[in-house]
Fold this protein.
Amino acid sequence: MATQPISRTIERIVRGVPTSDGAGVKLTRVLTQDLQRRLDPFLMLDAFGSDKPDEYIAGFPDHPHRGFETVTYMLEGQLRHRDNHGGEGVLAPGGVQWMTAGRGIVHSEFPEQDHGMMAGFQLWLNLAGKDKMCDPGYRDLPVGTIPVVTTAAGVTVKVIAGETQGTVGAMTRATTEPIYLDIHLPGGAEFEQRLPQDHNAFIYVYEGAVTVGDPNGTGANAPRPAQNGEMGILANTKGAAGVVIRSKAPARLLLIAGRPLGEPIAQYGPFVMNTQDELRQAVTDYQTGRF
Ligand code: CO
């Protein structure tokens, strides 16, 4: 009898692409457009981190979004957000802003500092076709409102979305059921997360290195390493209950998973819809001030 695999393994390692966005903010695009189908419902992940004001000070002047959600997670520094529906807030270290663009929002994001470190992530999470034209809105989740779990092995997990070890995260979303965890492993630790088999999942290591996979796995199920700055796409291993992550030295990573929508993805810059017609409508609506 074949043994049931315990953990998914890393199917592919991806290194981000250096780019700039907004008015010239330097960032690394980790999840690029060519991975949208494979990592459905996730559309993009950007990592930013710089202590050079030149690389972030220009910020992101007014720009629109339609058809998906943006999740901004600050590690260091402060960003002020303003939108055309009267929303405003300051994102501080450890905090998250969960914005549902729905049928349309125009917003800006500017650094609330002129020196020091600015670091964090922005994830784009798709909306199902039936939800793309929903009312826009956002939620600020300051650091104190995001549950943190510490396991017996000393692993601390910030539960931004979804559930881990019986703790429900700050956000729960129907349809895409995202799991978004920020995991800090001390040296020599192991962490296990359950994942529905059909959900697409990936990790992004931003400090140290980890090994992912069944500790006793061999061949295709052998554990594989991921280093600082690498995204590991997790295989949808048949029968695997989740993922096992281990560290030799202290490491930090994001673990992100969600239920694929299985719908056509049509993207034109900050608009993500199902069809080209819907994209043309989005451009017209934006240009005629209907956001
Ligand atoms: Co934006």
Q: What stands out?
A: The chain has a mean pLDDT of 96. The chain has one domain: 6-287. Residues 6-287 form a domain with the Jelly Rolls fold (CATH 2.60.120.10). The chain has one helix and 26 strands.
